[in-house]
TrEMBL record:
Entry protein name: CoA transferase subunit A
Lineage: Bacteria, Pseudomonadati, Pseudomonadota, Alphaproteobacteria, Hyphomicrobiales
Keywords: Transferase
SUPFAM superfamilies: NagB/RpiA/CoA transferase-like
Family: Belongs to the 3-oxoacid CoA-transferase subunit A family.
Organism, scientific name: Rhodoplanes azumiensis
Length: 217
């Protein structure tokens, strides 16, 4: 059965205050139309889990500029001064997470694990308030898994069942985020008949994709 959903209908399922994982790395591999529609529909008080907030007015940066974000969990915000200003002004709560730790926390959320042990951040401000554990004489932080209400991901190609494949580095956080959310909305560059994506090129399987949106009108 086809999972193709109209853009407006798919985004309308996301309420104010929802927690969203959004794929991409500085906008590469981000679901551009879904982000634009969130802004157009005036969504607010969102918690965003993403690698970054891109640049001012670009991709996730559009949500920042629109004042749609209440809390952000990200690896860096250094290239978006608007995010920095809103954080300093207290408009956004920001949790900065080392990139590898962020990826592993999301993976743990998708795999049903209770957490991640990492040496990254031990002895720094990252460790404040967090549990530590010693393994064979080495200290590790216990980092909790991350999950979201919705994952908004971008794929290079999809079939009508919702099987997805990605293109080169645009893959980035998308597949792991698709496993760590209650509802997955995928934006695909092209949607093809079932069977045109070779089975060994399916990187996200249809059973975890709830809604499919075309990247272009």
């Amino acid at each position: 059965m086809s999972k193709v959903t109209a853009l407006e209908e798919a985004v309308a399922k996301i309420p104010d205050g929802a927690t969203l994982m959004i794929g991409g790395f500085m906008g590469v591999g981000s679901p551009h139309r879904l982000i634009d529609e969130l802004v157009r529909q005036g969504r607010k008080d969102l918690t965003i889990i993403a690698n970054d907030t891109a640049r001012p007015g670009v991709d996730i940066g559009k949500l920042i500029r629109a004042g749609a974000v209440k809390r952000l969990v990200a690896s860096h915000i250094g290239l978006n001064p608007e995010t920095q200003k809103q954080m300093i002004d207290g408009q956004i709560e920001v949790e900065l997470v080392p990139q590898g730790t962020l990826a592993e926390r999301i993976r743990a959320g998708g795999a049903g694990l209770g957490g991640v042990l990492t040496a990254t951040g031990v002895g720094t401000t990252v460790a404040e308030g967090k549990q530590t554990i010693e393994v064979k004489g080495k200290t590790f932080l216990v980092e909790e898994p991350l999950r979201a209400d919705f994952a908004l991901i971008a794929a290079w190609r999809a079939d009508y069942y919702g099987n997805l494949s990605y293109e080169l580095t645009a893959r980035n956080f998308n597949p792991v985020m698709a496993l760590a959310a209650d509802t997955v909305i995928a934006e695909a560059g092209e949607i093809v008949p079932v069977g045109l994506i070779p089975p060994d090129q399916v990187e996200t399987v249809s059973v975890i994709v709830d809604h499919l949106v075309a990247r272009s009108h």
